[in-house]
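Researcher: We're reviewing a set of sequences before deciding which ones to prioritize for further study. For each one, I'd like a predicted 3D structure that I can look through quickly. This is ABC transporter ATP-binding protein. If possible, include the structure in token form so it fits the rest of the review sheet.
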Amino acid sequence: MSSLIELNDISYGYRAGQNVLDRVSLTLDPGERLFLAGPNGAGKSTLLRILVGLIKPHAGEIRAFGTPRVTDAEFHDLRCRVGFIVQDPDDQLFCPTVIEDIAFGPLNLGASREEALAIVDEVLDQLHLKHLRERITHELSGGEKRLVSVAAVLAMKPDVLLLDEPTNALDEENLRRLEEILIGLPQAMILVSHDPHFRRKLATRIIELRTGKVLQLPDKKCTASERANQAETAS
Ligand SMILES: Nc1ncnc2c1ncn2[C@@H]1O[C@H](COP(=O)(O)OP(=O)(O)OP(=O)(O)O)[C@@H](O)[C@H]1O
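Model: Here's the predicted structure for ABC transporter ATP-binding protein, in token form for your review sheet.
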């Protein structure tokens, strides 16, 4: 079985002489929910941005869906298949209304207006968010914006999901709802989260970044008790 995503020896620094990432490698296989753990500033978000081509690494190779990704066209193709839920929903949602925000992706991928609206209703139903359908986006609470940003990415029917701190701003009820939604999704995903409970519940594998290097990379899937131990010890 080949990996969906492969990062090989990725190095990057924002400034000369600074290495945020130092020869980091990882793979994502079908069905995995891989967590990136590690302290603030370890380079977790930077790694996700590199994966989708928003930042070019100084060294290393990115492969996705069996193909090396180097050119802008190759990363554009990758971004059509990898849904990226960024840390701040305000960076993701830019349309006046919830309907337009969720329809934006499908329309951009070539869906008709009618098809896009059908997808909007499908994902709002899937996420139990129908009550937000007619709302103005900037009037939503932080937690509501977070869930709508998840809906907007799912509407593009990605093959892989990247979620950067998806539990930020969620209350207990919506956190549980997001956990159930993510566990129920067929897509493989890479998640960044400092929340040990969330990691314990969802992770099939956890790797830890520290000062730009991968500290531990278990070469097998976690058992339930290993998952619990890793989630407790990873910061
Ligand atoms: N646009 C930027 N310009 C300069 N330095 C940056 C930029 N973005 C991030 N950095 C720096 O790169 C390092 C890694 O940041 P990154 O956001 O990837 O870490 P992180 O592990 O996701 O942190 P956190 O857990 O706090 O979200 C930090 O030292 C950060 O200050």
